[in-house]
Amino acid sequence: MTIAACAAIFATTLCSGKKNVAEQAAETPAEVLLGRLTALSDSGLTAFGHHDDTAYGRYWEYQPDSSDVKNVCGDYPAIINWDLGWIETGAEKQLDGVPFDFMREEIVRHDARGGINSLSWHLLNPVTGGDSWDTSCDSTLTRIFADKALTDTLTRWIGLTADFIGNLRDADGNRIPVMYRPWHEHTGEWFWWGINEGTPEDYKNLWKLTRKVFDEKGIDNVVWVYSPDKSNVNGYDDYISRYPGDEYVDVMGADVYYFDEPDSGRIFTERIDKTLGAAVRAAREHGKIAALSETGFESLPVDDWYMNTLMPVLEKYPVAFVTVWRNSNTKPNHWYAPYSGHPGEADFRAFHDSPRTVFAREMNEIR
Ligand code: BMA
After folding, report:
1. What is the model's pTM?
2. Which domain covers residue 77, as residue numbers?
3. What number does the ligand 1 atom closest to the CA of 83 have?
4. CATH value at residue 18
């Protein structure tokens, strides 16, 4: 798709959000990124994202310039998501084995090619020392905020993510803007910051603490993404019930996966309507950007999921971006984008070629 073509299709221009040089100089890196996301949103275009895209794929790992997505459609995703899990331990590699130094280099490379980087954080449970999914001690969140030593530990850990993000610099030494999506899927029961682990106030305090730490360090390159999971979200009220407030969030996300289950298509559509529908409404009412922050069909067992399941969602809800999870080369049956040789290649190429979607080359034009 060319920019002219998309402008014709959506009767709008991507350049409308462009700033002159003086205005650009006055903007923080976060504001520049927000401007690009707004341009996408205003144009009815959706940027495609893939987790750990250039780190490893179905049959490879850590090869320069490799990407399952690029191997299939000739272009990198517009957005690459990375996860900071275990940075809090001082480890050299994050929880899925990606070295933090490698991650930093890839973030610089993706930014240089005009793409957008996004970060999530599957951190340890500060009470038990277990992983993000350790909910073995009741009310983890309430305990953390009731205990100064635990609050201090968490504050220090948040500071380590702030340092990593604040130190992301391009070749000219400028901070690279990123999206950060901490405390995701909090409406589910599976993370220690989940729905059963504290009150809505406790959850909001997580965000407030996070922003306090980042603001005190002067970090100005973060666009903040709020992303409830479809679990326990039956509409707008559930979606917004733990929302920390407009001053903490820029993007209203929704995490809604497709599962292999009876009547899967109807159930997925219903979950999308309840959760992504709420995100779109929240974005409209709060002046934010809407996004499908995580979705996918694990191991992609059908050949037409992108055009026949995901595309209709984007037609109904033209969100600024959609991200699918990782293509693991070690975890069995754990991939979400097609790879070379996958029977869904042609379908994915059609998804890439659609006037609605944006991959890295076109993202580079949206400044
Ligand atoms: C999950 C799976 C896990 C992984 C975690 C954090 O969805 O992919 O294997 O450890 O995300 O990336």
Report:
1. 0.94
2. 3-366
3. 12
4. 3.20.20.80
